[in-house]
Specification:
By secondary structure, the chain is an all-alpha fold. It has one domain. Helix content is 65%, strand content 0%. It has six helices and no strands. The longest helix has 34 residues. The radius of gyration is 20 Å and the shape is globular. The relative contact order is 0.14.
């Protein structure tokens, strides 16, 4: 399996964001199930759904029972997001399985999949900041537009930096100067055997 190109990952994230916003609803994954492309698209799709639920839960007029229901959706999506990141790391492990790291090979503080996670969410930030820059309603002041344009410039710069970081990390793996090592998140709050608030109330 050849290494993933950062530009390709970003384009798939962008595709997912645009697909969701066509109807502001879930969209079928256009890639074959089990492929890296499918997983990247699905990762961002989960992020996009969660982004809008996070917006909704902050409405001041929302009923308490709806807050609870949305919070549980967010917990479920967080678990799905983590599962998807770990699946992406499995692809990365396979990409570099044949590479023997050098004896002095270094570790990276985050896995490539968690870097991809940041890149996925960044595309949502860029999309929504662009929306703010392009607002033409009466409540969008000139000052607001200028502030958002300034923030958008930073986000676009960050996009290029993160793409470079991913490419450099993959290059280091390919050369054996860094070694692939993945730690699973082992989230506890959704596990009825690990969360005391769950297992203590089991009958």
């Amino acid at each position: 399996m050849k290494a993933l190109e950062a530009t390709k990952a970003v384009s798939i994230f962008q595709e997912s964001v645009l697909d969701w916003h066509k109807k502001e609803a879930p969209h079928p994954n256009p890639y074959p199930d089990g492929t890296l492309e499918f997983t990247l698209y699905q990762k961002n799709h989960i992020d996009t759904i969660q982004w809008h639920i996070e917006d909704e839960i902050r409405r001041p007029d929302i009923a308490l029972e709806e807050v609870v229901a949305l919070k549980r959706k967010i917990d479920k999506l967080n678990q799905e997001r983590t599962d998807m990141v770990e699946r992406l790391d499995d692809f990365v492990i396979e990409m570099f399985r044949s590479v023997t790291p050098k004896p002095d090979a270094r570790l990276n503080s985050e896995s490539p999949a968690w870097l991809l996670d940041r890149m996925s969410i960044l595309e949502l930030k860029i999309f929504h900041m662009e929306e703010q820059v392009n607002r033409n309603d009466s409540s969008a002041t000139k000052e607001h537009i200028e502030k958002c344009q300034s923030k958008l410039t930073v986000l676009l710069d960050q996009r290029e930096d993160l793409k470079q970081c991913l490419e450099e990390l993959f290059d280091d793996y390919a050369k054996g100067t860094k070694r692939v090592k993945v730690y699973r998140q082992m989230k506890m709050y959704n596990d009825q055997n690990l969360n005391p608030s769950l297992y203590k109330n089991q009958k």
